[in-house]
Design brief:
By secondary structure, this protein is of the alpha+beta class. It has helices spanning about 25-40, 90-105, 125-130, 160-165, 185-200, 215, 245-255; strands at about 5, 45-50, 55-60, 70, 75-80, 110-115, 135-140, 145-150, 160, 175-180, 205-210, 225-230, 235. The protein has a seven-stranded mixed beta sheet with strand order 1-2-3-5-6-8-7. A four-stranded mixed beta sheet has the order 11-10-12-13. A two-stranded antiparallel ribbon has the order 4-9. Pfam families: Acetyltransf_1, YoaP.
Length: about 260
């Protein structure tokens, strides 16, 4: 198994795994590369299998992480994906081991990652991480957990920011979508598909683009790739809700059909 690390020296020549051939997301793919290129200076790392595949892990210092996490002396694991025929071959454990090694070399106290208490799209697989020794150190009102793995005998603690604990009280009516360019799929689906789906149903929509570190770290949701709210209530991290064919089903399921999503 050969893995390579992306950096300023090869970012232009290497793919970043997601949305490799999705022409609709070409702009988002470039935005993700631009975002990634800006993170290397803070110690961010992107390690992937040396194949044209979705097998990779991203991580960096939590202090510079694009999420509302308070975890000094920790590395924040962001996107981590092993897909298709590459599953079951040990890539996940191998990539995590490289992250633990990086934490040890950096003198960090541990690793943290953001996962759903139940599996949520575009978040870490909490069940798998817990099997690797991660433990819950904080949780949000929306059912999102912060998981931590200590490194060596080091102590340390981690938590979500105060803004996250206030997320249950989000005000405003209609749809509110938070997103960043950490994922190549968000730009197209949020700025085009979600807008169209909301317009067809006559629903008010506010889009909050987390386009700076400060905005991401002060967000009310830990899921800064994509989070959707309806009248202050958390709906989903599933980006496919933006698609017209999936919108109604996901909304109704998430809200248990207690909230009408008819035109207002």
């Amino acid at each position: 198994m050969t893995y390579i690390a992306l950096g300023e020296h090869n970012l232009c020549d290497e793919h970043t795994c997601c949305a490799i051939s999705d022409k609709k997301c070409a702009q988002g793919y470039q935005l993700k590369k631009d975002w990634l290129g800006q993170q290397f200076a803070s110690g961010y790392q992107f390690i992937k299998l040396d194949e044209r595949a979705k097998v990779f892990i991203e991580f960096g210092p939590a202090e510079a992480g694009w999420a509302p996490v308070v975890a000094p002396r920790h590395l924040l694991v962001n996107c981590f994906w092993v897909s298709g025929k590459y599953k079951g071959q040990g890539h996940g454990k191998a990539l995590l081991a490289k992250t633990v090694e990086a934490a040890e070399q950096a003198g960090a106290d541990g690793l943290v990652t953001i996962a759903g208490a139940k599996k949520m799209p575009f978040l870490s697989d909490g069940k798998w991480f817990k099997q690797q020794g991660f433990e819950v150190c904080d949780s949000s009102p929306d059912g999102i957990e912060l998981l931590r793995l200590g490194v060596g005998d080091a102590g340390g603690s981690a938590s979500f920011s105060e803004n996250v604990q206030k997320s249950a009280g989000l005000s405003g009516e209609g749809l509110v979508a938070y997103y960043s360019n950490r994922c190549p799929f968000t730009d197209h689906h949020v700025t085009q598909n979600l807008k169209e789906a909301a317009q067809r149903r006559g629903l008010p929509l506010k889009i909050v683009h987390l386009d700076t570190l400060e905005k991401a770290q002060s967000a009310p949701t830990p899921a800064t790739i994509f989070s959707l709210y309806w009248s202050g209530r958390f709906v989903t991290t599933d980006l496919s809700v933006c698609m017209d064919s999936r919108f109604d089903k996901i909304m109704q399921k998430a809200l248990n059909e207690k909230v009408s999503i008819e035109a207002v």
